[in-house]
Write a structure and sequence with these properties.
Chain A is an alpha/beta fold. Helix content of chain A is 38%, strand content 22%. By secondary structure, chain B is an all-alpha fold. Chain B is built from 2 helices and no strands. The chains are: A alpha/beta, B mainly alpha.
Chain lengths: 311, 47
């Protein structure tokens, strides 16, 4: 319905385009979450912002929208950008999350602890959509580092998904495979209820983090100093609770490495603002997809421990 | 306090899990219909 309208708008002469825009016939809407809080970078006042945007492709709710479609779009696909800015510079770091890019579903009444996962298409039939998904990501973001937080123990139904995920990755055309890395991190097994152990993921991601760098702009001259060369693609089963904890940590590593390069120290209050923003974003995204705030958000918010409820 | 299990966080997670159980099983199918209708997915798939 809208698809032919957008190129039509883009090809209008500038004058006609601004007339069409001012008529507000086409109103862009974003689903997601954004918030901005004042913070202090050392002694300089700054602003920290978090923007999460949901994709409108394969949109839907937790048990009804899962996995990938034939166009290579995945469910619960969210791009989140952490921004820190002062009068002198703007720092930005982008991450993505999205459902496991395979054809799978969970149907019937869903009770906690019984994740009845069915993979609905054979490996050969799902490979094209899988490849398309990653070639789109590589075109848009550069290299992609997958952080898969699914349980790997055979007792959990979700282990099958993780296994198929890496099988599909190995079947990708070599020139694209080179641009995609995979880290498996069994969140539940590693943390075992003590979420501070989630920080054990840091050494696994440090190398890529350095390689991907971050976006940095000089505000005084409006010039780009550094660009982000790749993106972390985090997933768990719902891409809500576990994913949020890890994305918060990845964002922290990125900011840390930037501050390290600048020899800038920040106070505890800086990280409290950061944790608060991530917990709010996690809650908002979880409300959209699953109807309630995120689990584990009390950990994301404060860095303190809380008990794991296995969902 | 750091390292101790926060009771409030635990209770809040249980409450959310219970709410999800209800919402995901009984409310979401309707929400999904609305979203599909709004994003015109019905024309391609379900009718």
């Amino acid at each position: 319905m809208l698809a032919p309208l957008l190129p039509f708008r883009d090809h209008l002469p500038a004058e006609a385009r601004s007339l069409l825009d001012s008529s507000q016939l086409l109103t862009p809407i974003i689903r997601g979450h954004a918030s901005s809080i004042k913070c202090r970078v050392g002694l300089t006042p700054g602003i920290m912002t978090l923007i999460s945007r949901l994709s409108c492709r394969r949109a839907g709710t937790r048990f009804n929208a899962r996995g990938i479609d034939d166009e290579g779009n995945v469910a619960n696909f969210v791009e989140t950008e952490t921004l820190v800015s002062t009068d002198e510079w703007v720092f930005s770091y982008t991450q993505i999350r999205g459902s496991v890019p395979l054809f799978w579903e969970q149907s019937g009444l869903q009770l906690p602890g019984s994740s009845k996962i069915t993979i609905t298409r054979s490996a050969e039939a799902s490979q094209p959509a899988f490849n398309l998904h990653f070639s789109t990501l590589v075109d848009k973001y550069g290299a992609v580092h997958i952080v898969n937080l699914l349980s790997q123990s055979a007792k959990q139904g979700e282990a099958v998904l993780g296994q198929e995920y890496s099988n599909h990755l190995n079947e990708m055309p070599p020139e694209e495979h080179r641009q995609v890395y995979l880290t498996n991190f069994d969140f539940h097994a590693v943390t075992g209820g003590d979420f501070r152990l989630a920080n054990n993921i840091r050494p696994l991601l440090m190398g890529t983090e350095e390689e991907f760098a971050y976006y940095l702009e000089d505000s005084t001259t409006k010039s780009i100093v550094l660009e982000q060369m790749g993106v972390f693609r985090t997933n768990c089963l719902d891409c809500l609770d576990r994913t949020n904890v890890i994305q918060g940590i990845i964002s922290q590593i990125a900011i840390d490495s930037f501050l390290g390069h600048k020899d800038q120290l920040v106070g505890e209050d800086f990280w409290i603002v950061h944790g608060g923003l991530w917990a709010d974003a996690g809650d908002a995204l979880s409300k959209i997809y699953a109807g309630t705030g995120a689990l584990k958000s009390s950990f994301t918010r404060t860095g303190k421990n809380t008990r794991d409820i296995n969902l | 306090m750091i390292g101790k299990m926060s009771l409030a966080g635990m209770v809040s997670d249980v409450r959310k899990s219970a709410a999800r159980l209800y919402i995901n099983n009984f409310v979401d199918p309707g929400r999904q219909n609305t979203m599909d209708l709004l994003l015109v997915h019905h024309l391609e798939t379900n009718i």
